[in-house]
Specification:
The complex is a heterodimer of chains A (about 270) and B (about 260). Chain A is mainly alpha-helical. Helices cover about 80% and strands about 0% of the residues of chain A. Chain A has 11 helices and no strands. In chain A, helix 4 packs across helix 7 (about 140-165), helix 5 crosses helix 7 and helix 8 packs across helix 9. The N and C termini of chain A lie far apart (about 50 Å). Helix content of chain B is about 35%, strand content about 25%. Chain B contains 10 helices and 10 strands. In chain B, the strands form 2 sheets. Chain B has a 6-stranded mixed beta sheet with strand order 6-7-8-3-9-10, sandwiched between helices. In chain B, strands 2-1-4-5 form a 4-stranded antiparallel beta sheet, covered by helices on one side. Classes of the chains: A mainly alpha (about 270), B alpha/beta (about 260). Chains A and B meet through helix 8 and helix 9 of A and helix 2, strand 6, helix 4 and helix 6 of B.
């Protein structure tokens, strides 16, 4: 009789160890945050009461919501513009940093280290925190929002871009170096064609994220429909809040669908 | 006067591997040299010291009496622009068009801004088309590189190298990814163009029959050293067995037709 070879013990132990660690962390977090599934049910009554206020009685819906809708158009457009401007300038600033921070395109190790450190610092600050810091420094309105999203997009795109650049086929790069092409020309001819489609897809994805983020940062005064939402909440105007949430839901859904479709066409 | 001169070239990689252990060769202008040897013998390393893609840890390589090994920056780029190179895996930018791939061969000679903007002089564009015509695929100029067959892709590789107007051509296993008939037509194109333009050529090859057919001179390498240097008629089966350190394997060592 032949014996079936058993896989080495270390491999199976590693898997088991990972499982134990994940389990322990969950248990710890569960205790520390006093996470309680029951609250979801005991609080259900409050939830329904709150939800009920969001939706006006059917008879008043036409007049109430009809009066609100036109007022939401311009903050909504502002939200999209904040996201758009943030994505645009984030991309613009990310481009040079992508190549400076990638091992196969960087000019020297020192520049690469500086670029990478800068990006790590940028990424460690969340978008909401950027907005909360920039609003008091600058002004309440869309400007700090756009800057916050620029810095946020820059951090993500440079990281994703750098990983894409470092995974390109090195053959064409070697060929162009051998032909005596300079560093910038080598990047333009050998690297950019290889990463272009993936990068456009990432940029669309970051725009999707930015539309949602743009709503949230409005809550801390960075303009757009999030700011309107905050105002309505402060006035306990739940009918207005309900409509805004509905509108955000629809717009985000539409933009996500278009973006997902466009990205599927790219690669 | 030799065109390419290797002087006691040694290469030790960071891993500690000694790829070249002191190679000296003198290659006269216009010679078509085929370097043979098993994989790992140091052929690829040797060829890459000519354009300094691999920097020797000792010794030096001279092209046109200029020390390539000691050259850096702009000077090195000018030397490289005079040395064409083709590769086993073609190394084309697959998502770009054929003409753009060929024009990339001009990047060492045109000002940087022209290259980056793609604003090549008309003469350069015309020359790129001419190079494609010389390798027999003028009609493929506006096709994407990844739409071509292997043999056609290698011809684009040759056209890109030709676009440099080189005096030296390096070919690293140029036919190893191709089938036998395509291998022969690519090799004969390479040989014909080298003859017509008087280009000094170094080709790494594994196949004994192809080395004998196309070479003016055969250099045999084993374990980082030159162990044979002679004419194709001197490269007998016995000589190849010495180079490879084993009996000839008709399957592996012959390409046939």
């Amino acid at each position: 009789m032949t014996t079936i070879p058993t896989p080495p013990l270390t491999g199976r132990l590693k898997g088991l160890l990972a499982l134990v660690i994940v389990g322990a962390l969950v248990a710890l977090a569960y205790r520390q945050t006093s996470f309680d599934l029951q609250a979801l049910f005991t609080g259900a009554a409050d939830f329904w009461r709150f939800f009920g206020r969001l939706v006006p009685p059917l008879s008043e819906m036409g007049t109430n919501w009809g009066a609100y809708l036109p007022q939401l158009v311009s903050p909504l457009i502002e939200t999209l513009q904040i996201a758009y401007v943030g994505t645009f300038f984030g991309t613009l600033l990310a481009l040079p940093l992508i190549f400076l921070s990638s091992a196969n395109t960087s000019s020297d190790p020192v520049t690469m280290w500086i670029a990478r450190t800068l990006l790590t610092i940028l990424r460690s600050i969340p978008d909401l925190l950027w907005a909360a810091m920039l609003v008091p420094i600058l002004v309440v309105g869309p400007l700090p929002g756009a800057i916050a999203l620029t810095l946020f997009s820059l951090g993500i795109l440079a990281k994703l871009g750098s990983e894409t650049v470092e995974s390109v086929d090195p053959g064409p790069i070697e060929a162009l170096r051998a032909a005596g092409a300079g560093r910038v020309a080598t990047i333009v001819y050998a690297v950019i064609p290889q990463i272009a489609a993936t990068m456009v897809s990432y940029i669309l994805y970051v725009f999707e994220i930015n539309v949602r983020a743009s709503v949230i940062i409005g809550l801390v005064g960075a303009g757009g429909i999030g700011f309107t939402l905050q105002t309505r909440l402060n006035f306990f105007d739940y009918t207005g809040v309900g409509l805004i949430i509905l509108v955000i839901f629809v717009v985000v859904l539409i933009i996500d669908s278009i973006s997902v479709w466009a990205r599927s066409k790219l690669i | 006067m030799s065109h390419i001169e290797f002087r006691d070239v040694e290469v030790t990689y960071k891993t500690g591997l000694k790829a070249l252990k002191g190679v000296s060769l003198s290659i006269p202008r216009g010679q078509f040299v085929v370097v043979v040897g098993l994989s790992g013998a140091g052929k690829s390393t040797l060829i890459r010291t000519v354009n300094n893609l691999v920097v020797p840890s000792a010794g030096s390589v001279l092209v046109e009496e200029t020390n390539v090994t000691e050259s850096r920056g702009r000077k090195l780029r000018r030397i490289r622009s005079d040395i064409g190179m083709i590769f086993q895996t073609f190394n084309l930018v697959k998502r770009s068009g054929v003409l753009r791939n060929v024009l990339a061969g001009r990047l060492g000679d045109v000002p940087a801004w022209r290259g980056v903007l793609g604003a090549f002089p008309r003469a350069d564009i015309a020359y790129a088309h001419e190079c494609l015509a010389r390798v027999g695929i003028p009609e493929k100029a506006f096709v994407r590189a990844d739409a071509l067959s292997g043999g056609q892709q290698q011809r684009v590789g040759i056209a890109r190298a030709l676009a440099q107007k080189p005096s030296v051509m390096l070919a690293d296993e140029p036919v190893a990814s191709l089938d036998p008939p395509t291998s022969h037509s690519v090799m004969s194109d390479l040989k014909r163009i080298a003859r017509e333009d008087g280009i000094t050529t170094i080709v790494n090859l594994h196949f004994i029959d192809m080395a004998r057919e196309y070479a003016d001179r055969i250099v045999g390498m084993r374990d980082g050293l030159v162990v044979f240097d002679g004419t194709p008629s001197e490269a007998t089966d016995k000589a190849f067995e010495d180079i490879y350190g084993r009996p000839i394997d008709r399957e592996k060592d012959m390409r046939g037709t």
